[in-house]
Write a structure and sequence with these properties.
single chain, about 300 residues, alpha/beta, ten-stranded mixed β-sheet, two-stranded antiparallel sheet, 11 helices, 12 strands
Length: about 300
Amino acid sequence: MNLRSILACTDFSTSTDAVLSRAALLACEHTAMLKLIYVPPANELPCPDAACRLSHHALQLTQRHGIRVRTVAHVANTLDDVARAAQGADLVVTGTANERSLRAFALGQPEMRLVRKARLPVLSVRGRSDSAYQRLLVAVDFSEASRNLTKAAFGFSKSGLVELFHAIGTANDARLHDAEVSDRAIRAYRHECRRYAQERMFWLTDSTDARRNRVYAAISHGDPARQASAQQKQGGADLVVVGKRTTSGLSDFVFGSVAERLLRLSSVDVLVVPHDLRQSPVREHGGEPQARRRVRAGSSPVG
């Protein structure tokens, strides 16, 4: 994950001050351009002096962090507006939404809908911090996309410790019990599942040769979202990284989404990386897009 341009969303509330602070820290760490966009709260009229206030925030962040900050002139009244403004960006940073509507119930909270629309990593910020991420928990499922998600986590944080986490599902255990399989056979099955998980975890950590000294691994049993949330609290990670399949909101509603449940359960920041990741345009030295292309990049299909 090469962060060259970051889009941060604000509604000028105190809660989104944390969004601007985190986005500025990332821009400083990655020497990236930071763009600010005003997104008024749902069902509220836009602030009449939005442009002036946005410029004031940009000036403050420039002076405080020594970074390049620009503002998006138009108001983002919809997620489509945010997605259009994110064209050319590598990351969108937003606050935690708690939308109570039929649309949110069926299609997910705004963060998840934005991941689908923009096909970019979306960082959901929970609280303010004045330091870089120290420990990342990366939810993996051992697919090829998990390896790419691991690489993305290292690119996202240049110095933080990375803990790879996998939860072995227990649905098959219940099926074996229903089929009246012996306890001995079930224990053997669980042992084989854990051995496979350990082998695949080594496969993932072995792919990070130069960075192996800051990689940890953990395996658990149970629901992936709940177990990842519990592991985050136990290990003290300040960022959870999870992949997102290219699925519709209706599909997530019917079959469930680990990424969406982690967003709901986590008390720390969550970075959602879509499978259908859109790479930002290649830039010339002047910073403007030179060409636009799309690639298939990776993330864990956990989601």
